[in-house]
């Protein structure tokens, strides 16, 4: 048990389900793999599945939008945050889109190498969604202006061929050969004839031309996009203009998919990061949330109309467990696969004697629960030099290291997240004062119906803290489980405190069964600690306000408890 390396434990049932989805060459719906933080979703994809999905005819692109947040990603020697990605500094939208487009372009180049994507296919797919004549004339003319003028009577296909020829003259031949793997002269002579190499080069140039055409047409909408960003409006056509290039590549790859020859698939991890991405140049793109919605809408449409390559969205945001399905259409618009990690019996089977003793496991199960990431982090602490010295000197016990780990979670995860939740509630109070909250949400009897009559910051802060404490206390009374579909009203989502704690990532609204609960037993314990600490810090006036709230207007969600209303 001493210094035994941590191992990745297989999950045969879930792996079989995901493999069955991924091994189709085209599918009608994307799949969402969702679950609370720390249950092993990313580990499952990277360590157990991604290697197999890149063998033989299979080619899998992997995009992790969270890599743009360098201070909180393992790629840069940091760990994933326990709370929501929304608590981290948001990345730029251009960084996220560059990652997605680069991945899809490399997959398309592989399709060209296999002869699955041709210049004619790029042209015909582009013609379905775009009028090309003016754009192609611009590309043909290039920097020489009217010297390369083309007759108005020329057909679109002739314009395309001439544009490919004109662009190939301006492209770097070595770069194109590098894309095709033809930079090695000996390899080129052995593998491809001159005609074949020209055919493949034409397809690569056609992809470059398609990208240039889409960028040109997008630039014509720059002023409209800037105006949209300034006014805060919504436009599907402008949003689609920003997602034209990745969606064209997705469509090309989906059309090129062929069983046992070329079977591309795409995994997008931390899709929720895209919603919060910021735009630095207001004329370059629509907002991150609008880009996110446009991308998903078009993926859904591609799958429903023509079938799409297997696409897996991985997320820890509980928005994608239920609310996203309703926002994008109906409860079965996506294929849902929810993962909760191990139950206590499974975790004991994998952990006891290999990593923890029986007595240690009893403490872990009671205090932290079976969350795999908690277990890994605790085991890393246990193997640390500091703990070993304490044990050798008989100055500490295993309970001490569990208490230290809980204190770490309290200080670095829960307390900052609760501060952010208080900020959400203060904003709710200000918006209610300005009339931005619907009367439906401030209906008679709602515990949050009476925010401060003014937007004075101190009053809003006091009100927000009382509301959040009231909610946590009511949540404790329900034994940390609320069934949000119990009475088919979704009333819990009208509560700004519940929404705030879900937004910051401390609560998770799971899909089946439809329960809102803390993401782990350790976070649950830290929430109670936060409530006790806040009660102890209260003065007489604050205590009186809190007692008034609890007795006169207090929340009660016991009718939505875990067992009630769920069949």
What does this structure look like?
There is one protein chain. Helix 9 runs antiparallel to helix 11. The chain has a five-stranded parallel beta sheet with strand order 2-3-4-1-5, sandwiched between helices. It is built from 23 helices and eight strands. The radius of gyration is 28 Å and the shape is globular. Helix content is 54%, strand content 6%. Strand 7 (507-509) and strand 8 form a beta hairpin. With 567 residues, it is an alpha/beta fold. Mean pLDDT is 89; it is low at 186-190.
SSE topology:
Elements: H1 12-22, E1 31-34, H2 41-49, E2 58-64, H3 93-113, H4 119-129, H5 133-141, H6 156-170, H7 173-180, H8 185-191, H9 194-219, H10 222-231, H11 236-256, E3 263-269, H12 273-276, H13 288-305, E4 311-315, H14 323-327, E5 335-338, H15 344-351, H16 358-367, H17 372-382, H18 385-392, H19 398-433, H20 457-477, E6 482-483, H21 496-503, E7 507-509, E8 515-518, H22 521-537, H23 540-552
Parallel strand pairs: 1-4, 1-5, 2-3, 3-4
Antiparallel strand pairs: 6-8, 7-8
Helix pairs in contact: 3-9, 3-11, 4-9, 5-6, 6-9, 7-9, 9-11, 11-13, 19-20, 19-21, 19-22, 20-22, 20-23
Compose a concise summary of this entry:
A hairpin with a 5-residue loop joins strand 7 and strand 8. This protein has 23 helices and eight strands.
Helix percentage range: 40-55%
Strand content: 5-15%
- Measure the end-to-end span: 43 Å
Q: How many helical stretches? A: 23
The backbone outline, from C-alpha atoms, is globular
Poorly predicted regions are: 186-190
- CA radius of gyration: 28 Å
Q: Which strand order do you get reading across the main beta sheet?
A: 2-3-4-1-5
Largest sheet: 5 strands, parallel
Structural class: alpha/beta
Total strand segments: 8
Determine the mean pLDDT: 89
């Amino acid at each position: 048990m001493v210094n035994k390396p941590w191992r990745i434990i297989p999950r045969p049932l879930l792996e079989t389900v995901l493999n069955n989805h991924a091994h189709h060459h085209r599918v009608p719906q994307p799949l969402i793999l969702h679950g609370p933080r720390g249950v092993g979703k990313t580990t499952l994809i990277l360590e157990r599945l991604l290697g197999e999905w890149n063998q033989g005819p299979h080619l899998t692109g992997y995009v992790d939008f969270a890599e743009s947040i360098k201070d909180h990603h393992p790629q840069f020697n940091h760990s994933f945050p326990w709370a929501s990605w929304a608590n981290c500094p948001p990345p730029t939208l251009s960084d996220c889109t560059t990652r997605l487009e680069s991945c899809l372009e490399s997959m398309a180049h592989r399709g060209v190498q296999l002869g699955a994507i041709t210049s004619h296919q790029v042209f015909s797919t582009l013609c379905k969604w775009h009028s090309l004549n003016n754009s192609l004339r611009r590309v043909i003319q290039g920097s020489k202006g009217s010297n390369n003028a083309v007759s108005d009577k020329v057909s679109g296909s002739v314009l395309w061929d001439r544009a490919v020829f004109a662009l190939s003259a301006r492209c770097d031949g070595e770069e194109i050969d590098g894309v095709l793997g033809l930079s090695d002269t000996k390899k080129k002579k052995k593998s491809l004839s001159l005609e074949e190499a020209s055919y493949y080069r034409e397809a690569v140039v056609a992809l470059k031309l398609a990208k240039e055409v889409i960028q040109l047409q997008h630039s014509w909408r720059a002023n409209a996009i800037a105006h949209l960003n300034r006014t805060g409006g919504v436009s599907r056509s402008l949003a689609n203009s920003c997602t034209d290039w990745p969606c064209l590549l997705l469509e090309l790859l989906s059309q090129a998919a062929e069983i046992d020859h070329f079977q591309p698939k795409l995994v997008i991890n931390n899709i929720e990061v895209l919603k919060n991405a910021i735009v630095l140049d207001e004329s370059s793109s629509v907002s991150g949330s609008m880009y996110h919605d446009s991308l998903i809408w078009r993926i859904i449409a591609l799958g429903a109309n023509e079938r799409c390559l297997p696409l897996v969205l991985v997320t820890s945001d509980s928005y994608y467990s239920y609310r996203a399905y309703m926002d994008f259409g109906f409860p079965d618009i996506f294929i849902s696969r929810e993962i909760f990690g191990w139950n206590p019996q499974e975790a004991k089977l994998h952990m006891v004697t290999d990593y923890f003793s029986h007595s240690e496991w009893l403490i872990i199960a009671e205090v932290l629960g079976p969350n795999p990431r908690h277990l890994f982090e605790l085991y890393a602490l246990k193997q640390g030099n500091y703990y070993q010295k304490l044990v050798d000197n008989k100055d500490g016990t295993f309970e001490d290291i569990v208490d230290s780990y809980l204190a770490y979670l309290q200080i670095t995860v829960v307390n900052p997240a609760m501060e952010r939740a208080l900020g959400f509630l203060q904003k709710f109070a200000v918006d209610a004062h300005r009339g931005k909250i619907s009367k439906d949400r401030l209906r008679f009897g709602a515990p949050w119906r009476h925010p401060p009559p003014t937007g004075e910051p101190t009053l809003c802060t006091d009100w927000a803290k009382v509301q959040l404490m009231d909610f946590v206390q009511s949540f404790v009374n329900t034994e940390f489980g609320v069934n949000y579909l119990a009475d088919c009203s979704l009333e819990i989502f009208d509560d700004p405190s519940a929404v705030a704690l879900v937004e910051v990532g401390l609560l998770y609204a799971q899909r089946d069964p439809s329960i809102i609960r803390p993401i782990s037993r350790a976070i649950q314990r830290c929430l109670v600690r936060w409530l006790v600490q806040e009660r102890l810090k209260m003065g007489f006036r604050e205590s009186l306000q809190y007692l008034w709230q609890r007795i006169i207007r207090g929340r009660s969600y016991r009718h939505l408890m875990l067992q009630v209303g769920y069949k």
